[in-house]
Each structure stands twice: as structure tokens, then as C-alpha cells.
Amino acid sequence: MPDISDLPMQRNHPLFRRFAIDGTVALSVGPLPTPYFVFDGHGVLIMGQAEPQAVACDFADQDVFPVATQSGNAAMALFVCSFTDASLGPHLELQAVALCAPTPDQRISDDPTAIAAALISHPEWGLLSLHLWNDSSNVVAYNSEYLGLGAELASGDVALGKDFRFVFQDAKGAPLISGHLARKGFSDLRCVFSLMRSLGLHTVLRMARQPFALAHLVNRKSAVLARNGRAQTITSADQMVVTRFEAKRDHLVLSGPLATYGFTPLCYEHISPFRFVYLHPDCAPV
By CB neighbour count within 10 A (0-12 exposed, 13-18 middle, 19+ buried), where does 173 fall? Predict the structure, then answer.
């Protein structure tokens, strides 16, 4: 395994000195390094609400429960990411997740930033992976055969300029998602004030000073991982800019399995550079 200190500058970051690529896992595509690192890239987390019945189907026979909004909708989000430098090689990622809790009947407000606030105020909650697509066979094998996330192969294109443009198709060429989102240098003040109302000023300032952001991704049960494992994610970005979704400016089209959720985007967060470590659920939490 390479010594992180000997790698290019973008990899010589405190996050990658804190954690190490310390092993390999044997998969159908051959041995791959673990844990999973993203050294550089850009990602967007699109947060919103979905039809509760559609999301409830994904929670059948699981040991975690969907979190609803006060209006009764499901709290759902989408990750659209371009990882330009990663331990498994450069790749794209599209993932649909739903906010989940270990106990039923949990609710958050209808505020656009409520999912972001919940992940901070409820560390015992997580994001249940509903669908996952990557454009690399190695990454699909790692996510499916090792992490139990049921990843599928896709193709896509992501362009980062004055806005963030993206399009993904499944392995047969059928559309999955397309859109463009504004890219700003600073968070929308309405979003900042919403987070302050939800979390309190001191919590927001404390989170802004922390070097790493912690969250948990939860897999659906499968033959690979027969339990709802809580995989810890550790993110360290220079910018995490939150903006309200504006229909006159932003554009999002969901197709195929994503269209069935009736997803309504409310806000989105640009994460850049996307520095990220994903630990296996069996690893001790940080």
C-alpha cells in the first residue's frame, strides 16, 4: 500500500493522514484497496421530499425506519458526484438515499435544510441507500460485493463551470437523471438562517470549525450483508455551500426507477473538493 505522505499534494491532507488504506479485499474483479478513499472531486447533495408510499417499499423487512416530514412526506436526497481522484480510480456516482432512524415514527420539519440539520442533531440516524450507480466496474464490485450496497453500472457526464451539469444513463442506455444546478461561492442566507433556527448558532459555528463531517450510510439487507450496517463516512471539504432549489434557475429530471419516488428538490449542497473516507460497517466508529 502506498504511503500517503509520498502521494501528490491533494492526497497529503489531514483526513488522509488520519486514516490509512491498510488492506485489500478479494472481489470478482480482483483485489481492491480498502477502505475507500476519494482524494478529490466535486459532489452535490440534493435534499428534498418524496412520496411516502414509494419510499416505504424500500424499507420493507429492514430494521430501520423512514423519517417523515411534518407534512407526511419522506425525507429523501440524491448524491451526484464526480470523483476525479480516488483509491479505486476516477469515477462518477449517482445515489438515492432516504433519511432513516432506528425507531419508527420520527419526524423532521418541512424546512428545505431539515435533512442537513437532522444529520447533525441526530447522529444515531443515517441515510438508507435506495439505489446506487457508478461508471466503473471496479467501483460497482466494491460497493456491491464488499459494502452490500447493490450498485449498478451506469454511464454519465458531469460538467463543472458556472453551474453543475449532469446526465446519467443505466447500463442499457436508459435515462436516470439529468439537470443543472447553480454554483455559488457562498451559502444562501435563507439556508444559513434555517440551519441556525434548527440547530442554534453555537452548533452551526462549532460544525463550521470541525475538520471532518461525520455521517452514516446504511445498506439494505442482502446476501452480502444480512443486517442494516452503519458505515461511517468522514468528509473534509473546503467548501460546503447550501442553496435553495429555484425552479426558474435550476433543473432536475428523474427517470427510470428514480421517477417512481415523486421526488421534490428543496435545496442542494455543493461539496468541493470532495475529500471522503468510507469505512466498512464492521469498522469501529470514529
Answer: exposed
46 within 8 A of 253, measured Cβ to Cβ: no
Contact predicate 178/253, CB 8 Å = yes
Which tens digits make up the pLDDT trace of 264-283? 999 999 999 999 999 999 88
> For the chain, where are the E strands, in sequence order?
23-27, 30-34, 36-50, 65-66, 68-69, 74-86, 91-101, 107-108, 126-134, 152-160, 163-170, 175-182, 213-218, 230-235, 239-244, 251-254, 264-272, 276-278
Closest Cα partner for 173 from 140, 135, 131? 135
- DSSP at 67: P
Nearest to 238 by CA among 17, 100, 69, 43: 43
pLDDT tens column, 24-70 = 999 999 999 999 999 999 999 999 999 999 999 999 999 999 999 99
Question: C-alpha 166: how far from its chain's center?
Answer: 16
3-state secondary structure of 234: strand
Which three cell numbers, joined as nine digits, stand for 75?
A: 425525507
C-alpha cell at 239: 467548501
